[in-house]
Amino acid sequence: MPTKADPCSQPSLMHPDEAITRLLEQVTPLDDSEVVQLPHALGRVLAEDLASSIDLPPFNNSAMDGYAFRFDDLAHNESLTLIGQSFAGHPFEGEVKPNTCVRIMTGAPVPNGYDTVQMQEKVEAKEGDIFIEAPKAKGANIRYQGEEVSTGGKVLFSGTQIGAAEMGVLATIGVSQLRVTRQVKVAFFSTGDELRPIGSELAPGQIYDSNRYTIQGLLSRANIEWIDLGVIEDDPEAIRQAFRHAASCADMVLTSGGVSVGDADYTKQILDEEGEITFWKLAIKPGKPFAFGRLGKAIFCGLPGNPVSSMVTFYKLVWPLLQKMQGLPQTKPLTLKATLKGELRKFPGRVEYQRGILSHNAQGEAEVTITGGQGSGMLTSMSLANCFVILAQEQGNTADGTLVTVEPFNSVLC
């Protein structure tokens, strides 16, 4: 018996890969920048190349604890005379003489005249005489001045996102402030008389406004400056003013709900009047309705109202736009193959992002299980998951033991 088609599928639905390609063509990176202090640079994007004003390392130093000496002295000496020590921050200041050595610690300067370091485990000390097992080569265990970066050499390039390693690199070369791309600003709000703030009592037919908090979390993880405009009542003028205010203070206006073609509310009407908006239906589950366009100078993205649909479309469609606006390169998400534990139900017609838990069995092989119910309103399915199980558009039901494509959650969703 042939597999039934997805009842929500239509020939006109756009594949999500085509959608993101078209969306990216319509946004450009921000061209303004600002200077920030290094402690506040984490997650920001460099707006210029950075060169080192010093050599790295700034001096020859020891790669380990041991003894520094002249390699050639070992050819005619059974032992060397210990004449001092060199510690990090407290270098040896005496005169280097033939047939001598100094005790040296990791990172400490190698005294001028010495050319080799032997680790302490291969050295024997007897009453001031140091017996050294022959090292592998002259110059062993020395980190040479400028071997990592020489003065004037580029260390980071424009478009680099500053992470923990980059923070350390910048501190190493003495950078206290740097020029970065201005953070993208995103204004968002919810609409609906049924929405109530958390902490209040619910009357019949009312629900808590959860999507705003999800969006706030997603934007924070994406290193975006967000502006929460709260809940807007179902009133045409209130909605109009909210859109105008959002567009005036942000680079992107983001909403959830109220953008489906069949919605009987004021949101779509006001969007049509205030901006240039295209309403799309995508071959994606969850998350078929999506809106994109402009409100004044701001980009507009309208997410579906169901909580999981909102998260999935943000991740697949909005987050790549925000990356481009920040000046970051586009990268394909990491995917891998895992063995499905259990069965999956699916109708052909849409690309499906089911929520899964990726793990490894005793043999180290990747396995994935589904997080129970996959309804687009079941936000716990996202909370329990650590990956998406991606089912292709024309794929149908999937049997236990099948190899499936898995996309581990990135830092925005973790």
From TrEMBL:
<dbReference type="InterPro" id="IPR036425">
    <property type="entry name" value="MoaB/Mog-like_dom_sf"/>
</dbReference>
<feature type="domain" description="MoaB/Mog">
    <location>
        <begin position="187"/>
        <end position="324"/>
    </location>
</feature>
<dbReference type="GO" id="GO:0061599">
    <property type="term" value="F:molybdopterin molybdotransferase activity"/>
</dbReference>
<dbReference type="InterPro" id="IPR036688">
    <property type="entry name" value="MoeA_C_domain_IV_sf"/>
</dbReference>
<dbReference type="Pfam" id="PF00994">
    <property type="entry name" value="MoCF_biosynth"/>
</dbReference>
<keyword id="KW-0479">Metal-binding</keyword>
<comment type="similarity">
    <text>Belongs to the MoeA family.</text>
</comment>
<keyword id="KW-0500">Molybdenum</keyword>
<dbReference type="InterPro" id="IPR036135">
    <property type="entry name" value="MoeA_linker/N_sf"/>
</dbReference>
<keyword id="KW-0808">Transferase</keyword>
<dbReference type="Pfam" id="PF03454">
    <property type="entry name" value="MoeA_C"/>
</dbReference>
<dbReference type="Pfam" id="PF03453">
    <property type="entry name" value="MoeA_N"/>
</dbReference>
<keyword id="KW-0460">Magnesium</keyword>
<keyword id="KW-0501">Molybdenum cofactor biosynthesis</keyword>
<comment type="pathway">
    <text>Cofactor biosynthesis; molybdopterin biosynthesis.</text>
</comment>
<dbReference type="InterPro" id="IPR038987">
    <property type="entry name" value="MoeA-like"/>
</dbReference>
<protein>
    <recommendedName>
        <fullName>Molybdopterin molybdenumtransferase</fullName>
        <ecNumber>2.10.1.1</ecNumber>
    </recommendedName>
</protein>
<dbReference type="InterPro" id="IPR001453">
    <property type="entry name" value="MoaB/Mog_dom"/>
</dbReference>
<dbReference type="InterPro" id="IPR005111">
    <property type="entry name" value="MoeA_C_domain_IV"/>
</dbReference>
<dbReference type="InterPro" id="IPR005110">
    <property type="entry name" value="MoeA_linker/N"/>
</dbReference>
<comment type="function">
    <text>Catalyzes the insertion of molybdate into adenylated molybdopterin with the concomitant release of AMP.</text>
</comment>
<dbReference type="InterPro" id="IPR008284">
    <property type="entry name" value="MoCF_biosynth_CS"/>
</dbReference>
